[in-house]
User: Fold these one by one.
Assistant:
Number 1:
Amino acid sequence: MNSAAPIQTQDDALSLQPPLPVRRLHNFIYCQRLFYYQWVENLFEENADTIAGSHAHRNVDKPSNYEEDKKVALAEGLPEGARLRSLKLESVTLGLVGVVDLIEGGPEGAEVVDYKKGSAKRGQNGERVAKESDAVQVMAHALLLEEEGTRVTRGWIYYAEDKRRVSVELSPEQREQTLKALADAKALAASGHCPPPLVHDPRCLHCSAYPICLPNESRWWAAGFEEKVDEQQMAFVFDGWPVAADASRWRPGGHALAGAATTAPEIKEAPRPDGDAGEILVVQEPGAQVGQRGDMFTVSVKGEVVQKMPGHQLRAIYLYGAVQLTAQAVQTALELDIDVAYFS
């Protein structure tokens, strides 16, 4: 007789997991469903935002030569002003792996810098503060460096849209939050259960996983809605099933749907179609000028800005007639691979 296969416990599932990438820990804080799709299901969709994020990393993604003597130097303390870029670190103890964008030698120890394409959030007094998921990512990198024997004294996030650094306090509270998030993320991955979608959350509108997640549709189907049975079709009801006034509306498992709708609710945020590479900026006003400020393309008429558009959302600029394009805008269009066409 064949013996039964051993039952795998959650502890077994946790021990079998590979090291969790820090970027997936960032996903977990941002949206647990996104984390599950990308880490457990290995589903990833590129969009304009993820490509813009890669563009913001283009300088720090050129790794420094990391030889054994530099590892020793890092453990002893980087000299003030020294830099290491795109440094991959892994901790067996933490079960964590990540690539630190930039490590700088500061006056009191190493400082960690992470690059983000967007902008910082605003505090109560209008000051720039780090987003929660970004702060957790910086703290995770600091933990990895501590495992290598490096003393980390400060953390920073460079937001490309603001073109400014925002400080991250590496406090005991931040450390505790990061370690708890790491444990919770691994437990979710081991559970094998995909979290439910967010409800009417603006994060969904710019999420690369939107075409996979389909939050509105997923929520509707998860509620147990079924198509109304044709009145001419014979239906069978088993004993023990509660029968509603309208027996054609039921939830799998035998629970009647009180007041259930027979048609899907209106979907206000339609999924973005595949291949939607960006928008086209069309300028036809004679004498108009297309310029660039920060991460935005601007259209000015008689010195007054009449329109702004993020560069990472554009795929082409069409200029009709006597419209000028500044040299800075030309350079940015080349960097972002934005087509520019002139029409007479």
Number 2:
Amino acid sequence: MTVTVNFSGYEGPVTCGPEETLLRAGLRAGLALPYECASGGCGSCRAQLVDGEVKTLWPDAAGLSERDRRRGNRILMCQSVPTADCTVKAPILDGPTVSREAVPERVTSRLLGRVELTPDTALFTLDFRSPIDFLPGQFMLLESPDGVRRAYSMAHPADGAGSTTVEFIIRAKPGGAASSWLFDKVQVGDEILVEGPYGRAYAQPGSERPAVCIAGGTGLAPILAITEELLVENRGRRVDLYIGARMAGDIVLLDRLARLNELGARVAVSVEDPDFAGTEPAGWAVFDDSRVGRVIDHVADDWTDLSDHDIYLAGPAGMVDAALRALVRERGASADRLFFDRFIA
């Protein structure tokens, strides 16, 4: 059933198709709606349902507080599928609609390969019938037959005309519904429903500013894509790439890090395990610097003033929040030149 949605503050009604979320319908219509994770965890797309009815994909989504739920009319646009004509009051972003971003679509892919990188992390390769366009640093939602949706970032830039094969770095979460499906049930050749691309923490074109790229855990995927794009676009640009992990063995795809080093990036790694010496995987020599401790502390140690830098962050929410505090408050990083994705557990 197709319904009509009016977004207060935006011109004209928006048509919303069957099983289409308010967020995707609005983005498809060219509205500059706020969002971050697009999967219910962050609350960035919180809005007020003024009139009408919606179906909630994830009733217990962490992006809504208990106070929001008590009000009864607060919704997450990324989790709300309208079941009747409705009116939504959503925040309006400053500035013009972002025209570079491809419109999110729901398409079917096939699992082409799953390669183990560590005991709990794998490189998934999906095959698409038609080329998929996306910006370096964006992500897609992978959806199970049971309706479980999780966001995963692409680990490389798209080809010039879009990519028919797309790679994701995915870590298994003990007891996680998506992990059980992706690691234990899906077989090579099986179909996987995908929605996207989403995300605004992508490589910004045309900037001459030096860049600092910081990855924690599987946040490596979007940072790989962003760093490659920055270096290919401007080989003379300074790019410092920082990788953080708990254990040395958690650092993966060292061949790709070596490639970025060859393109001109300075690559540094921070390992929280104080006894990691002697446990380094093959290819460790790619790193210009390796230290014990938190990656954010090492970035702060290396830079006293980041006011003229572009900064890209991807990793666990705690790491990103710590980085925002340390780099903006203490190192002068410009908030409008800091692009980040929090990976919601």
Number 3:
Amino acid sequence: MCIRNNNDKIEKFLRNSANVSREEYKVLNTAKTLDEANALVQQLDVSKYRTSDLRDGTKYSYRCRYYRKYTLRRYEVQIYVPDNEFTMIKLMYKNAHCHEQRNVTGRLHSPIRESDNKYIKCQLTQGQIKNALSIDYPNIPLPINQLTNLINYTRRRDNPEIFSVYDFNRWCMNHNYDDNLLYSTFVPYYHSIKNIDDIFVFFTTKQLIQQIQFTALLQVDATYKHTWNNLPLLVFGSSDADRHFLSVWNRFGITKAQQEVFPQAKRLMCWAHTVSKIREHRKLVPADKWNEVDSDIHNLQLCFSDNIFNCAVSLLKLEWDNYPLMKQFQKYFFNEWIKKIPVW
């Protein structure tokens, strides 16, 4: 009897899931401009997660802002902007907000984390916080390891450790090169650190330094959002024959470093960023011509030498000259991506 009930529940769940997946988008509203459509979407408690370039328009997809917490029948919204009709932008939706059943995760629930933050600000001890949470949420289990980790994390976040410039200099001096340590991090060079705005530290290992000599190409990327004090962090290195990236870490500006350290080197633009920027100007091209233009640009990117690239550019210009309606896009493309930034 129990097995049959479970089978019935599973069958019902699969049937409902199939119905949800087959549910089509319905028209929610219309707008005359993209700004007006974005203003309408902001009222729906959703967040953008995808932009799709379609054959005849552009689609902006949104989903429930709390989709990680509530995964059942996720609310979705789309803005569809056609290429040939700029005054009729459709807002479509599927499903509805359903915040009744939370997703099962290993984290403590949001209300508990908020209460934990409040009690820590009141300078309560861990035992006092646990007793208070047990009273506030009597039906929710509070695993001691999760609660301990949450309390420690919150306290570190609100009261970060403080290091002086002297501590940083001393750390760099203590991490010298050791010929016997192949994989340990050391600092081969660092700029005399005087303040937080004047930092240059080079981290690497002996193994990485040995590997970098076998390639003539360097792969470089940088970030600053996820580092302590938002310091710029540059990662550069090379890939081996098995496509394993061998990184060497550093902190300085990509463009400035390339100009000062490798003045004769060519800096290639990220292809994903390049094609994304180009596609933002697709409306300068007739809708029935865009796929062909997009294919031409992708073929141009495949050129593996400067001579072939220059010849392909000349041929592409001759071809595009036959389409007067592309004159504005042609001017933009050749000025930005051939004259100013030809390496991508």
